[in-house]
């Protein structure tokens, strides 16, 4: 075959091959286009699929960049575009447009958007490529969107939920405070700028930056800081500076201040780390978030959900905006506590700023009525943004006001003795009427104890020592001997029945009560120490109040609750002590106040019963250490609540009777 014939044959083959290749149908092109749309490939959609008329009408900026920006700004995701299939025998005419009904679904920050449209493909040639191309306009972004329109998003702020006590007294509420600001034309003394900055805990550079904002006019009020209503001294001093004033503004308030500070916690500006974690939940850099206490624990219940609206803004004067999607604002939940804020305040004030903690519980329901850590701090101060100097001052305060003591664990000292008695009586090893002959200040079982001896505070207690005298004189030797008679297994099992070695079923994180670091009792010496609340025994103040419930209500310890929407009277432990044995222990605790060493609690107006305790924190084996003083008490005739209180460092203040005096003040109020 010659070269000429070969060339003709090759051309013929190419012609036949091209004729055999079927041109893409409008539906084929639509499927590809929708695939790119669902994947958000706007650049490919523009360059490879739009018809020339659309490209002439809309630039890449108007098609590609605008849609990419809208997806980011409006939180558009989960885009699902589908179409209604044409009849199988449809004959496509290249001279006629191909119309397809399409369905568009997407999620946005303001909720779901769904619409239907007719999408048209036209047959034309682009850059020597013949085929079907999409005709597009802005209504394929949102219906009723036209060239020249703007898409806007507006936010309606949801109110943060409030925290209230059982009587609807506000604990964390949406109240008011003040914006402190400058009127530039009246602020003429530059030397006052540094004074103002020091008062507000800000810098002079920050003041300059606020005054340099583009909107500022000489006669305008320019906010530079916020102040709570409680900061009266700051308000008074700033008002004395010419050109400085304050105006009312909405603000989170903590009406009970220090008294409830560790429980309420506070909100503060969201940190970069928190924003990164919470961005998916709709938080922004300008939001406030719970930073400590219940404000943090209840963040998801309190926050609420801001209202969002996406709308089309028409350029024509007087044209009504068109809503695309709208999510109404949902205010945060109001959370009601079992706490009695007035009882909490009374208890806090009774403690006179001494380092310590208190808890009060209702023995008939398990509801928490007070949960105090003293000293506290001003949550309003933290909510507004505390200065570095002020924070350092609080951190260096020897009373440690930033430490939440009601969640911590402490050796309960002799306040555990009524529980030790209950365990022994129920085990049948302790006869409350049987007296023991105890002589001297110290005692040991035998020489196998080596140097270890048990010491009691009142060797003058008259023999024989029965349970009542042992409680009145708080006799360590008596309770150690009873624990030895029980044996370590019986005693440890009994303590576990009272909730030791078990996480408390409570809504707020608490130190787990422990018998020892290992959860067991390893020696007779440790058994003896544990019987009077020393050794390695630790408990939190709420648990200490709760373990007196069975002694008051004949055997039942309720699950402690903090929120009023929790079911109360849920039995946590039952059958801990018989009614007969509980009555005997109650009489002994009444005698502790009347005849014993809680004289400060012996009120004429309120017949208190309870038990004192002192836990020594030894600096070393041979040195005297600081002492934590305890008192657990209730009204013996009307036990509406049991209160447990601990005060640190009572060794120079009369020991545990010092604490009994504080508790007595609560009952007198």
From TrEMBL:
<feature type="domain" description="NTF2-like N-terminal transpeptidase">
    <location>
        <begin position="25"/>
        <end position="148"/>
    </location>
</feature>
<dbReference type="GO" id="GO:0008658">
    <property type="term" value="F:penicillin binding"/>
</dbReference>
<feature type="signal peptide">
    <location>
        <begin position="1"/>
        <end position="24"/>
    </location>
</feature>
<dbReference type="InterPro" id="IPR050515">
    <property type="entry name" value="Beta-lactam/transpept"/>
</dbReference>
<dbReference type="InterPro" id="IPR005311">
    <property type="entry name" value="PBP_dimer"/>
</dbReference>
<dbReference type="Pfam" id="PF05223">
    <property type="entry name" value="MecA_N"/>
</dbReference>
<dbReference type="Pfam" id="PF00905">
    <property type="entry name" value="Transpeptidase"/>
</dbReference>
<keyword id="KW-0472">Membrane</keyword>
<comment type="similarity">
    <text>Belongs to the transpeptidase family.</text>
</comment>
<keyword id="KW-0732">Signal</keyword>
<dbReference type="Pfam" id="PF03717">
    <property type="entry name" value="PBP_dimer"/>
</dbReference>
<dbReference type="InterPro" id="IPR001460">
    <property type="entry name" value="PCN-bd_Tpept"/>
</dbReference>
<dbReference type="GO" id="GO:0071555">
    <property type="term" value="P:cell wall organization"/>
</dbReference>
<dbReference type="GO" id="GO:0071972">
    <property type="term" value="F:peptidoglycan L,D-transpeptidase activity"/>
</dbReference>
<feature type="domain" description="Penicillin-binding protein transpeptidase">
    <location>
        <begin position="357"/>
        <end position="666"/>
    </location>
</feature>
<dbReference type="GO" id="GO:0046677">
    <property type="term" value="P:response to antibiotic"/>
</dbReference>
<dbReference type="GO" id="GO:0005886">
    <property type="term" value="C:plasma membrane"/>
</dbReference>
<dbReference type="InterPro" id="IPR007887">
    <property type="entry name" value="MecA_N"/>
</dbReference>
<protein>
    <submittedName>
        <fullName>Penicillin-binding protein</fullName>
    </submittedName>
</protein>
<feature type="domain" description="Penicillin-binding protein dimerisation">
    <location>
        <begin position="156"/>
        <end position="318"/>
    </location>
</feature>
<dbReference type="InterPro" id="IPR036138">
    <property type="entry name" value="PBP_dimer_sf"/>
</dbReference>
<dbReference type="InterPro" id="IPR032710">
    <property type="entry name" value="NTF2-like_dom_sf"/>
</dbReference>
<dbReference type="InterPro" id="IPR012338">
    <property type="entry name" value="Beta-lactam/transpept-like"/>
</dbReference>
């Amino acid at each position: 075959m010659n070269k000429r014939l070969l060339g003709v044959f090759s051309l013929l083959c190419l012609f036949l091959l091209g004729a055999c290749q079927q041109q893409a149908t409008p539906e084929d092109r639509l499927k590809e286009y929708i695939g790119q749309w669902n994947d958000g490939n706007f650049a490919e959609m523009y360059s490879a699929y739009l018809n020339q008329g659309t490209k002439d009408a809309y630039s890449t900026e108007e098609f590609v960049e605008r849609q990419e920006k809208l997806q980011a700004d409006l939180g558009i995701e989960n885009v699902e575009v589908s179409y209604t299939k044409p009849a199988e025998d449809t004959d496509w005419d290249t001279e006629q447009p191909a119309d397809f009904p399409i369905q568009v679904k997407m999620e946005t920050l303001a909720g779901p958007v769904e619409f239907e449209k007719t999408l048209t493909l036209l047959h034309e040639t682009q850059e020597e490529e013949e085929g079907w191309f999409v005709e597009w306009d802005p209504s394929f972004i949102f219906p009723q969107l036209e060239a020249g329109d703007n898409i806007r998003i507006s936010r309606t702020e949801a109110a943060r939920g409030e925290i209230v006590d059982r009587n609807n007294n506000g604990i964390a509420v949406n109240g008011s405070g003040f914006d402190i600001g400058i009127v530039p034309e009246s602020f003429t003394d530059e030397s006052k700028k540094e004074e103002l900055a020091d008062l507000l805990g800000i810098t002079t550079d920050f003041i300059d930056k606020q005054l340099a904002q583009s909107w500022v006019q000489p006669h305008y009020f320019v906010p530079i800081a916020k102040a709570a209503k409680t900061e009266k001294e700051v308000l008074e001093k700033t008002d004395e500076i010419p050109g400085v004033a304050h105006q009312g503004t909405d603000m989170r308030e903590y009406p009970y201040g220090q008294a409830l500070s560790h429980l309420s916690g506070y909100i503060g500006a969201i940190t970069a780390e928190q924003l990164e974690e919470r961005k998916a939940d709709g938080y922004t850099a300008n939001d406030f978030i719970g930073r400590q206490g219940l404000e943090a624990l209840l963040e998801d219940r309190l926050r609420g959900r801001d209202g969002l609206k996406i709308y089309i803004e028409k350029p024509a004067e007087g044209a009504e905006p068109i809503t695309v999607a709208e999510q109404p604002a949902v205010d945060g939940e109001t959370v009601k506590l079992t706490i009695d804020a007035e009882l909490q305040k009374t208890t806090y004030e009774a403690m006179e700023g001494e380092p310590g903690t208190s808890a009060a519980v209702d023995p008939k329901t398990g509801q928490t009525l007070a949960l105090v850590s003293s000293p506290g701090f001003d949550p309003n101060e933290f909510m507004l943004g505390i200065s570095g100097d002020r924070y350092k001052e609080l951190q260096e305060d020897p009373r440690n006001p930033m430490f939440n003591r009601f969640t911590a664990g402490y050796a309960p000292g002799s306040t555990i003795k009524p529980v030790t008695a209950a365990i022994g009586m129920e085990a049948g090893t302790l006869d409350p009427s049987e007296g023991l002959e105890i002589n001297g200040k110290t005692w040991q079982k035998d020489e196998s104890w080596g140097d270890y001896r048990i010491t009691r505070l009142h060797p003058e207690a008259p023999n024989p020592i029965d349970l009542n005298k042992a409680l009145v004189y708080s006799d360590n030797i008596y309770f150690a001997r009873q624990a030895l008679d029980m044996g370590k297994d019986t005693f440890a099992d009994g303590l576990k029945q009272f909730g030791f070695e078990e996480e408390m079923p409570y809504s707020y994180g608490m130190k787990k009560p422990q018998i020892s670091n290992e959860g067991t009792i390893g020696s007779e010496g440790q058994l003896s120490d544990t019987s009077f609340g020393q050794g390695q025994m630790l408990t939190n103040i709420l648990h200490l109040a709760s373990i007196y419930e069975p002694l008051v209500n004949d055997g039942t310890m309720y699950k402690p609750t903090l929120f009023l929407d929790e079911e109360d009277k849920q039995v946590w432990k039952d059958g801990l002590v018989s009614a007969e044995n509980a009555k005997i222990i109650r009489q002994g605790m009444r005698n502790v106040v009347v005849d014993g060493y809680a004289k400060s609690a012996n009120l004429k107006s309120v017949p208190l019963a309870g038990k004192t305790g002192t836990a020594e924190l030894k600096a070393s084996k041979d040195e005297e250490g600081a002492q934590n003083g305890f008192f657990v008490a209730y009204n013996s005739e009307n036990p509406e609540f049991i209160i447990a209180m601990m005060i640190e460092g009572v060794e120079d203040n009369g020991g545990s009777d010092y604490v009994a005096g504080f508790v007595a003040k609560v009952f007198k109020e």
